[in-house]
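Progress note, sequence design subtask.
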Protein backbone atom coordinates (compact mmCIF):
# COMPACT_ATOMS: atom_id res chain seq x y z
CA UNK A 1 0.00 0.00 0.00
CA UNK A 2 1.42 3.35 -1.02
CA UNK A 3 0.53 5.98 1.56
CA UNK A 4 2.93 8.80 0.64
CA UNK A 5 1.30 11.65 -1.32
CA UNK A 6 3.59 14.36 -2.56
CA UNK A 7 0.68 16.82 -2.43
CA UNK A 8 1.29 17.15 1.32
CA UNK A 9 4.88 18.24 0.77
CA UNK A 10 4.92 20.01 -2.60
CA UNK A 11 7.18 23.05 -2.72
CA UNK A 12 8.97 22.26 0.54
CA UNK A 13 12.66 22.98 1.10
CA UNK A 14 13.63 19.60 -0.35
CA UNK A 15 11.69 20.29 -3.56
CA UNK A 16 13.47 23.63 -3.94
CA UNK A 17 16.90 21.99 -3.91
CA UNK A 18 15.87 18.99 -6.01
CA UNK A 19 14.01 20.98 -8.64
CA UNK A 20 16.63 23.71 -8.99
CA UNK A 21 19.30 21.09 -9.63
CA UNK A 22 16.97 19.13 -11.92
CA UNK A 23 16.38 22.21 -14.07
CA UNK A 24 20.11 22.91 -14.15
CA UNK A 25 20.85 19.35 -15.33
CA UNK A 26 18.15 19.47 -18.00
CA UNK A 27 19.37 22.91 -19.10
CA UNK A 28 22.79 21.45 -19.66
CA UNK A 29 21.35 18.64 -21.82
CA UNK A 30 19.29 21.16 -23.79
CA UNK A 31 22.45 23.19 -24.43
CA UNK A 32 23.51 20.68 -27.07
CA UNK A 33 21.60 19.99 -30.25
CA UNK A 34 21.20 16.20 -30.04
CA UNK A 35 17.89 15.00 -28.52
CA UNK A 36 17.87 13.73 -24.96
CA UNK A 37 15.86 11.27 -22.89
CA UNK A 38 14.46 11.84 -19.39
CA UNK A 39 13.22 9.09 -17.08
CA UNK A 40 11.40 9.99 -13.84
CA UNK A 41 11.09 6.73 -11.86
CA UNK A 42 8.89 8.26 -9.11
CA UNK A 43 7.04 11.00 -10.93
CA UNK A 44 4.21 12.00 -8.57
CA UNK A 45 1.10 13.79 -9.83
CA UNK A 46 2.92 16.42 -11.93
CA UNK A 47 1.30 19.59 -10.57
CA UNK A 48 -0.04 20.37 -7.09
CA UNK A 49 -2.72 22.70 -5.82
CA UNK A 50 -1.28 24.45 -2.76
CA UNK A 51 -4.78 25.51 -1.71
CA UNK A 52 -6.21 22.01 -1.47
CA UNK A 53 -6.76 20.29 1.87
CA UNK A 54 -3.57 18.22 1.64
CA UNK A 55 -1.09 21.02 0.91
CA UNK A 56 -2.94 23.35 3.29
CA UNK A 57 -2.61 20.91 6.15
CA UNK A 58 1.15 21.12 6.58
CA UNK A 59 1.86 24.20 4.46
CA UNK A 60 5.40 22.98 3.92
CA UNK A 61 5.73 25.20 0.85
CA UNK A 62 5.94 28.22 3.18
CA UNK A 63 9.31 26.99 4.49
CA UNK A 64 10.34 26.10 0.94
CA UNK A 65 9.47 27.97 -2.23
CA UNK A 66 7.60 30.53 -0.08
CA UNK A 67 10.93 31.68 1.36
CA UNK A 68 12.23 32.54 -2.10
CA UNK A 69 9.11 34.05 -3.61
CA UNK A 70 9.90 37.70 -2.85
CA UNK A 71 13.67 37.37 -2.48
CA UNK A 72 15.93 39.84 -4.25
CA UNK A 73 19.36 39.27 -5.83
CA UNK A 74 18.47 35.63 -6.50
CA UNK A 75 21.42 33.65 -7.97
CA UNK A 76 20.95 32.57 -11.60
CA UNK A 77 19.96 28.87 -11.31
CA UNK A 78 17.44 29.72 -8.60
CA UNK A 79 15.93 32.56 -10.60
CA UNK A 80 15.45 30.12 -13.50
CA UNK A 81 13.67 27.75 -11.12
CA UNK A 82 11.46 30.53 -9.75
CA UNK A 83 10.59 31.66 -13.25
CA UNK A 84 9.25 28.20 -14.06
CA UNK A 85 7.30 28.00 -10.78
CA UNK A 86 5.73 31.37 -11.67
CA UNK A 87 4.82 30.04 -15.10
CA UNK A 88 2.87 27.27 -13.36
CA UNK A 89 0.59 29.83 -11.65
CA UNK A 90 -2.74 30.76 -13.12
CA UNK A 91 -1.89 34.31 -12.05
CA UNK A 92 1.87 34.84 -12.60
CA UNK A 93 1.77 38.08 -10.59
CA UNK A 94 0.30 36.30 -7.53
CA UNK A 95 1.68 37.47 -4.20
CA UNK A 96 2.28 33.85 -3.21
CA UNK A 97 2.37 30.52 -5.06
CA UNK A 98 -0.98 28.77 -5.35
CA UNK A 99 0.19 25.87 -7.48
CA UNK A 100 3.46 23.99 -7.39
CA UNK A 101 4.93 22.15 -10.38
CA UNK A 102 6.44 18.71 -9.87
CA UNK A 103 9.43 17.28 -11.69
CA UNK A 104 7.43 16.09 -14.77
CA UNK A 105 5.85 19.51 -15.29
CA UNK A 106 9.18 21.32 -14.91
CA UNK A 107 11.07 19.05 -17.27
CA UNK A 108 8.27 19.14 -19.84
CA UNK A 109 8.72 22.92 -20.11
CA UNK A 110 12.34 22.36 -21.09
CA UNK A 111 11.93 19.60 -23.67
CA UNK A 112 12.65 20.53 -27.30
CA UNK A 113 10.58 18.93 -30.07
CA UNK A 114 12.92 15.91 -30.47
CA UNK A 115 13.32 15.13 -26.76
CA UNK A 116 11.45 12.40 -24.92
CA UNK A 117 10.23 11.83 -21.37
CA UNK A 118 9.12 8.63 -19.60
CA UNK A 119 7.25 8.92 -16.29
CA UNK A 120 6.52 6.12 -13.82
CA UNK A 121 4.06 6.48 -10.96
CA UNK A 122 2.41 3.71 -8.97
CA UNK A 123 -0.05 5.52 -6.73
CA UNK A 124 -3.66 4.69 -7.73
CA UNK A 125 -4.73 8.35 -7.50
CA UNK A 126 -1.56 10.13 -8.63
CA UNK A 127 -1.01 7.96 -11.69
CA UNK A 128 -4.35 8.86 -13.35
CA UNK A 129 -3.76 12.52 -12.56
CA UNK A 130 -0.36 12.34 -14.22
CA UNK A 131 -1.71 10.48 -17.21
CA UNK A 132 -4.48 13.03 -17.62
CA UNK A 133 -2.00 15.92 -17.42
CA UNK A 134 0.02 14.62 -20.34
CA UNK A 135 -2.79 13.04 -22.35
CA UNK A 136 -2.15 13.40 -26.06
CA UNK A 137 1.43 14.61 -25.57
CA UNK A 138 3.51 12.53 -27.97
CA UNK A 139 6.78 13.37 -26.24
CA UNK A 140 5.60 12.02 -22.88
CA UNK A 141 4.91 8.38 -21.94
CA UNK A 142 3.20 7.81 -18.57
CA UNK A 143 3.44 4.33 -17.05
CA UNK A 144 1.72 2.73 -14.11
CA UNK A 145 4.73 0.65 -13.23
CA UNK A 146 7.42 0.21 -10.62
CA UNK A 147 10.09 2.84 -11.17
CA UNK A 148 12.97 0.58 -10.14
CA UNK A 149 11.85 -2.08 -12.57
CA UNK A 150 11.56 0.62 -15.27
CA UNK A 151 15.33 1.16 -15.05
CA UNK A 152 15.83 -2.25 -16.59
CA UNK A 153 13.12 -1.68 -19.18
CA UNK A 154 14.17 1.75 -20.45
CA UNK A 155 17.93 1.96 -20.04
CA UNK A 156 20.04 2.58 -21.97
CA UNK A 157 17.89 4.86 -24.12
CA UNK A 158 18.28 5.09 -27.88
CA UNK A 159 19.24 8.76 -27.56
CA UNK A 160 22.37 7.82 -25.57
CA UNK A 161 22.18 11.09 -23.65
CA UNK A 162 19.83 12.23 -20.94
CA UNK A 163 18.94 12.03 -17.29
CA UNK A 164 17.29 9.62 -14.86
CA UNK A 165 15.73 11.05 -11.71
CA UNK A 166 15.15 8.59 -8.86
CA UNK A 167 12.98 10.33 -6.31
CA UNK A 168 11.57 7.69 -3.94
CA UNK A 169 9.44 8.46 -0.91
CA UNK A 170 11.50 6.16 1.38
CA UNK A 171 8.26 4.95 2.95
CA UNK A 172 8.90 1.19 3.01
CA UNK A 173 11.35 -0.85 5.09
CA UNK A 174 14.31 -1.60 2.85
CA UNK A 175 13.67 1.31 0.52
CA UNK A 176 17.09 2.87 1.20
CA UNK A 177 18.66 -0.35 -0.05
CA UNK A 178 16.30 -0.43 -3.02
CA UNK A 179 17.19 3.15 -3.89
CA UNK A 180 20.90 2.35 -3.76
CA UNK A 181 20.35 -0.76 -5.89
CA UNK A 182 18.30 1.34 -8.31
CA UNK A 183 21.12 3.81 -8.79
CA UNK A 184 23.63 1.00 -9.26
CA UNK A 185 21.34 -0.75 -11.76
CA UNK A 186 20.88 2.46 -13.72
CA UNK A 187 24.64 3.03 -13.80
CA UNK A 188 25.44 -0.55 -14.84
CA UNK A 189 22.95 -0.35 -17.69
CA UNK A 190 23.99 3.16 -18.70
CA UNK A 191 27.41 4.11 -17.29
CA UNK A 192 27.63 7.35 -19.26
CA UNK A 193 24.11 8.59 -18.46
CA UNK A 194 23.24 11.40 -16.12
CA UNK A 195 21.71 10.00 -12.92
CA UNK A 196 20.26 11.81 -9.91
CA UNK A 197 19.10 10.13 -6.70
CA UNK A 198 17.32 12.21 -4.06
CA UNK A 199 17.35 11.26 -0.35
CA UNK A 200 16.17 12.81 2.93
CA UNK A 201 18.57 13.67 5.76
CA UNK A 202 17.08 12.25 8.96
CA UNK A 203 18.42 12.18 12.51
CA UNK A 204 19.37 8.48 12.28
CA UNK A 205 21.77 9.15 9.41
CA UNK A 206 20.50 6.39 7.06
CA UNK A 207 22.25 8.10 4.16
CA UNK A 208 25.67 6.80 5.30
CA UNK A 209 24.76 3.26 4.23
CA UNK A 210 23.45 4.52 0.91
CA UNK A 211 26.75 6.31 0.29
CA UNK A 212 28.75 3.22 1.21
CA UNK A 213 26.73 1.00 -1.14
CA UNK A 214 27.35 3.38 -4.02
CA UNK A 215 31.08 3.55 -3.29
CA UNK A 216 31.36 -0.22 -2.98
CA UNK A 217 29.48 -0.83 -6.24
CA UNK A 218 32.25 0.92 -8.14
CA UNK A 219 30.39 3.94 -9.53
CA UNK A 220 32.64 6.80 -10.63
CA UNK A 221 32.09 10.54 -10.85
CA UNK A 222 29.45 10.82 -8.13
CA UNK A 223 28.83 14.31 -6.80
CA UNK A 224 27.10 14.59 -3.40
CA UNK A 225 25.05 17.71 -2.68
CA UNK A 226 23.41 18.21 0.72
CA UNK A 227 21.51 21.02 2.36
CA UNK A 228 20.25 21.02 5.94
CA UNK A 229 17.80 23.50 7.38
CA UNK A 230 18.15 22.15 10.95
CA UNK A 231 21.03 20.62 12.91
CA UNK A 232 21.83 17.09 11.71
CA UNK A 233 20.67 15.43 14.96
CA UNK A 234 17.41 17.35 15.32
CA UNK A 235 14.60 14.83 15.96
CA UNK A 236 12.07 17.03 14.10
CA UNK A 237 11.88 14.74 11.05
CA UNK A 238 13.54 15.64 7.78
CA UNK A 239 16.41 17.98 8.64
CA UNK A 240 17.61 18.38 5.11
CA UNK A 241 18.00 16.54 1.86
CA UNK A 242 20.64 15.44 -0.55
CA UNK A 243 21.25 14.30 -4.09
CA UNK A 244 23.80 11.98 -5.58
CA UNK A 245 24.59 13.12 -9.11
CA UNK A 246 26.36 10.68 -11.38
CA UNK A 247 28.13 12.16 -14.42
CA UNK A 248 27.12 15.76 -13.63
CA UNK A 249 27.96 18.58 -16.04
CA UNK A 250 31.50 19.89 -15.96
CA UNK A 251 32.21 22.25 -13.05
CA UNK A 252 28.74 21.86 -11.53
CA UNK A 253 30.47 21.35 -8.18
CA UNK A 254 32.04 24.82 -8.34
CA UNK A 255 28.78 26.38 -9.45
CA UNK A 256 26.80 24.76 -6.63
CA UNK A 257 29.35 25.89 -4.06
CA UNK A 258 28.58 29.45 -5.14
CA UNK A 259 24.81 29.47 -4.74
CA UNK A 260 24.05 26.82 -2.11
CA UNK A 261 25.06 29.10 0.82
CA UNK A 262 22.58 31.71 -0.45
CA UNK A 263 19.85 29.08 -0.69
CA UNK A 264 20.57 27.77 2.80
CA UNK A 265 20.37 31.29 4.24
CA UNK A 266 16.96 31.73 2.61
CA UNK A 267 15.64 28.34 3.72
CA UNK A 268 17.13 28.46 7.24
CA UNK A 269 17.12 32.16 8.15
CA UNK A 270 17.68 31.39 11.83
CA UNK A 271 21.21 30.30 10.93
CA UNK A 272 20.90 26.58 11.61
CA UNK A 273 21.71 23.84 9.16
CA UNK A 274 24.41 23.87 6.53
CA UNK A 275 25.31 22.81 3.04
CA UNK A 276 28.02 20.79 1.36
CA UNK A 277 29.15 19.74 -2.10
CA UNK A 278 31.79 17.07 -2.49
CA UNK A 279 32.76 14.11 -4.65
CA UNK A 280 31.53 10.92 -3.02
CA UNK A 281 33.52 9.18 -5.76
CA UNK A 282 35.73 11.24 -8.08
CA UNK A 283 36.28 10.46 -11.75
C1 LIG B 1 8.71 12.11 -3.72
S1 LIG B 1 7.34 11.69 -4.70
C2 LIG B 1 7.81 12.19 -6.31
C3 LIG B 1 7.89 13.66 -6.56
C4 LIG B 1 8.25 14.06 -7.95
N1 LIG B 1 9.41 13.33 -8.44
C5 LIG B 1 8.54 15.54 -8.03
O1 LIG B 1 9.70 15.94 -7.86
O2 LIG B 1 7.62 16.30 -8.26
C6 LIG B 1 7.48 9.95 -4.83
C7 LIG B 1 6.39 9.30 -5.68
O3 LIG B 1 6.77 7.96 -5.96
C8 LIG B 1 5.61 7.15 -6.01
N2 LIG B 1 6.08 5.78 -5.83
C9 LIG B 1 6.36 5.12 -4.68
N3 LIG B 1 6.93 3.93 -4.93
C10 LIG B 1 7.01 3.83 -6.28
C11 LIG B 1 7.55 2.86 -7.17
N4 LIG B 1 8.12 1.73 -6.71
N5 LIG B 1 7.50 3.11 -8.50
C12 LIG B 1 6.94 4.24 -8.98
N6 LIG B 1 6.43 5.20 -8.19
C13 LIG B 1 6.47 5.01 -6.86
C14 LIG B 1 4.76 7.72 -4.90
O4 LIG B 1 3.39 7.39 -5.13
C15 LIG B 1 5.05 9.21 -5.02
O5 LIG B 1 4.10 9.85 -5.84
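Output:
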Amino acid sequence: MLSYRHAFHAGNFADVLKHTILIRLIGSLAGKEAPFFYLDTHAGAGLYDLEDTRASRLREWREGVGRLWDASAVPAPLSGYLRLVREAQTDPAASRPRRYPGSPWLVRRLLRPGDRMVLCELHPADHPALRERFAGDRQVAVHHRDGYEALRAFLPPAERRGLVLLDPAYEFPGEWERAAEGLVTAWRRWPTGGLALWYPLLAHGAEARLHRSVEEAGLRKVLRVELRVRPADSPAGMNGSGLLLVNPPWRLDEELAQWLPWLRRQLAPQGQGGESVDWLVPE
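The longest helix spans residues 13-30. Work on this subtask will continue into the next period as scheduled.
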